Amino acid sequence: MRRIVGIVLAVLLIGGVAVAVVAGRDSKDTSTATKTVRGVIGSEKAEFFADPEVVKALAAKGFTVKAETSGSWAMDRLPLKGYDFAFPSSKAPADELQRKSPVKGGPLRPFYSPLVVVAHRGAAQVLADNGLATLSGRSSGKLHMAPYLKAAKADRTWQQLGGADEHAELTGTLFITSTDPVASNSGALYLAAASYVADGGRVAADDAAIDRTAPLLKKLIQVQGAQQTSSDAPFRDFISGVGNPLVLVYESQVASLLMQKQQELGDLVVLYPDTTVSSDHTLVPLTESGRQLGELLSTDPGLRRLAVRHGFRPQGAAAEFTAATAGHTDYIDQQLTGIRQAPVPTATVLRAMARRTRG
Amino acid sequence: MKGRIRRLRRRVSRTLAALLAAAVLVPIAACSAGDDPAASGKKDDGAPRAGTLRVLASSELADMKPLLEQARKATGITVRPTWTGTLDAVQQLGSGKADGAYDAVWLSSNDYLRLHPEAAKRVTSETPLMASPVALGVKPAVVRRLGWDPSRVTWSQVHRAVADGELTYGMTDPARSNSGFAALVSVASALSGAQSALTDTDVRKASGKMEEFFGGQRLTSGSSGWLATAYARRGTVDALINYESVLLSLGRDSRTGLTVIRPRDGVVTADYPLSLLSAASPEAKDSVRALTSYLRSPAVQRQLTRETFRRPVVTSVRPAAPLAAEARRELPFPGSRSVADGLVDSYENKLRRPSRTVYVLDTSGSMKGERLRRLKAALTGLTGDFREREEVTLLPFGSSVKRARTHTVDPADPQAGLAAIKADTAALTASGETAIFSSLESAYDRLGPDTGSAFTSIVLMTDGENTTGDSADDFAGFYRSLPAARRVTPVFPVVFGDSDRAELDAIASLTGGRLFDATKEQGPGSLDGAFEEIRGYQ
Questions:
Q1: CB–CB contact A169 B329 (8 Å)
Q2: Quick check: A171 and B269 CB within 8 A?
Q3: Among A41, B12, B138, B439, who pairs with B397 as Cys (CB 3.0-4.6 Å)?
Q4: Which pTM value belongs to this model?
């Protein structure tokens, strides 16, 4: 029954979007004055702001958004004069930016997305058979972080895992491909989750804590060799069948593909780390117009629906996300049951952690 | 010790610089062969134009021209490619020169780019469009002789066969070609037993095995095209290492009939990402997005795998018939520039067989003045590029060979050999007639019977026609009477001044060499450029 309700809801939602499009077109023809707001955003949201339907929905509310992308952790070093908002993909840099902003009423978190690990089915099965993961269906499961980190610490290879020899590609050190933690948000958040688990559920707050996990974190990064700087590229490589069998991505990347039906996902399995970190897409208003945009993204039903279509979970009640992903529960864990959200260290601490993984 | 490292580093950067020069030559030739029917008649000024994407692209992507033309018809987006080598592209990006001049870069892989933060930060998004792993193409008879099951062969087995003298192969130069570089990384990763990204320690640990492995390399080349030609001509080489797509295309176009092996212990894969430059205009960004989604559409991906033997990157499309479906481990690419550069440096100066090269230099009367000055400048410039252990002979001639002196770049004191080459260069004087063929015969005699312990080659630089000594026919008779082992040495003639292109071309085809153009004043196609490009073949 619930499923049927979900489908009905989804159909209604699609209808709603279509109406919004038409409405957007109408208003574009008639309205004369839209407010142009300029902002700097994390690259994960570039597609969202470039989506013609988002452009129209914003125009209908009187906004034209000009967005430029930047690494979330580099935004505080940008000259932000002339911008109306900054929209990093994490709370920590947003907090720093907010302190410098003359405008109150922020930061706002219109939507978020947890980090997940994507695997091909063979690899996911081997992890499950060796106690590193639990599969809950054909295309979804949980990654057990503590055993995984233990294996990483011991330089465990795929060859040492039972059943890996049936898959020619499963050899070499077992590791998760992430982005470069110095340059990119998802790579940095990987360190946040790993350090939290490795340090017995404590959030690193000082040098001593950084020291305790530095050797392990360095290992997690160094084994990967060359890393990419945006979360987009390793996910596309994975979908293309190139690269490492385990890749850290945002749930939104998978969900957006599922909902937009642009591409078959093949034998992709989504593994939710049992301790993960969410990317909090946090808008810092730098002007009054920026604040209005933030409010709009958080509260406007049409824009929230569009955010869902790009795979994001809107803040507050998750009804929209649940409805939109109703047909994809074989991949998406809607309720995130039993998944612990690790708190993220401050930007200063996380940057220090990232630097220590180099050298 | 420190000084030595610094020197090595300098040498590598010079090698890379040479590579840049070399890489540009081919593309320019390719462009003048007539690229874009749409732009015919109009001189392209490189300015941005609506609907036109300016793309800095790997020269090996030239086989995509028909598909790009099709994309133009379907999407209205014209791709204006500038063919280049990976390293050149990375340098142009890093220096900021590419900003404003191009909208996108399209290389075999962005792995090397990522090691250079200055270049990497100019790229905003990248989307892989197809994939091809580095593979080994082996003659079917050799596969049988070795008792190999092609789907189960590992790099370690290949190493064993080479070390036992059971297998020889050809490969492009890693300092000049992306396929060679990817091959080097594959071999080093596999032979070192590295379970994760290659480190300096891994490279050191594997150097013994790698030296054995590269001892079996019989052919080297600055380009995949000449490698295939040389392979077909030589007949005695058992295998080629190159991208799977190149090996299979050779089978189709040149009937090489090689059995393609993707070693089971891992491969390095080119994924051809179309990468948008941050400095591109919003219109160009939209065009890149549209072109990307066109090229990733299932119908185009199907056509692409069928026509180029690269692997599709959307899961709904199966790889074309000759491509085996079984997955392979992707060997991680080195994470630091020092590892990557150090690997190329060891290959060039320690691991590969050394080179023995005779430079047959026309110093007849007509070379007097500006031409001799340019020859001296080009040779002097080249001295920074000679590898350790390399044996270089300068053989200047006029009416006959004037003198021939051989210098070896001794790893213990490379500067001594290089200084001697420079001194000999400075001492060149122009006088006499032009005895091309007698001098070439003398060069073959100078190299002697041993062509196995080194890559042997002859460079012929002349500014005129043969006027004295043996004739072309005499030389052909001389060459044909040589024992097979001595005939493997190719002559690379350089067209310069008033030299007779047809005469030189005949020498290149007789000996299995390649003609190089040096008729331009400077840059690619100049004498400096030609000498540097030839380095990839020595």
A1: yes
A2: no
A3: B439
A4: 0.81
